[in-house]
Amino acid sequence: QVQLVESGGGLVQAGGSLSLSCAASGSIFAIYAMAWYRQAPGKQRELVATIASGDSTNYADSVKGRFTISRGNASPTVYLHMNSLKPEDTAVYYCNADLRPAVGQRMDYWGKGTLVTVSS
Questions:
Q1: Which residue of 24, 83, 97, 101 is 20 to 30 Å from 75, comparing CA positions?
Q2: Rounded distance between C-alpha atoms, residue 58 and residue 26, angstroms
Q3: What are the φ and ψ backbone dihedral angles of 78, each rounded to 5 degrees?
Q4: Which of 31, 32, 12, 28 minimizes the C-alpha distance to 81?
């Protein structure tokens, strides 16, 4: 069973910085990509950033230049470094992993989310 556990959320003032981390554990044969999504109150979940196995990255236009996604070197961990935070960045942030939990399988996994609140 694969688990994703996020950490690092909290309250920060506008213009501040915050870093999130997500650690994957369990039966993992390979990771194709990991990503961060977010869901603000009353809105749909949206993609924030992705990082593929070759370390190529992709960002939502709303966070380009402010957020950076990266992976851990030794463990299946993904980070989201957030700078110049805005009140509109307030949301629950979810970690996602597209991976191979067993030979011949490919599945999508989600963490439970971590709340980021940006005060004005």
A1: 83
A2: 26
A3: -125, 140
A4: 12
What pLDDT does 53 receive?
87
The predicted pLDDT at position 73 comes to 77
CA-CA distance, 71 to 99, in Å (whole number)?
14
Sign of CA dihedral 32, 38, 44, 47: negative
Q: What is the pLDDT of residues 44-100, one digit of tens each?
A: 999 999 999 889 999 999 999 999 999 987 779 999 999 999 999 999 999 999 998
Q: What is the DSSP letter of 104?
A: T
pLDDT at 1: 87
Tell me how crowded residue 112 is: count the other CB atoms within 10 A of its CB.
Answer: 11
pLDDT at residue 12 tops 90 = yes
Query: DSSP 3-state assignment of 87?
Result: helix
Residues 6 or more apart whose Cβ sits within 8 Å of residue 18: 8, 9, 10, 12, 82, 85, 116
Are residues 94 and 48 in contact, defined by beta-carbon separation less than 8 angstroms? no
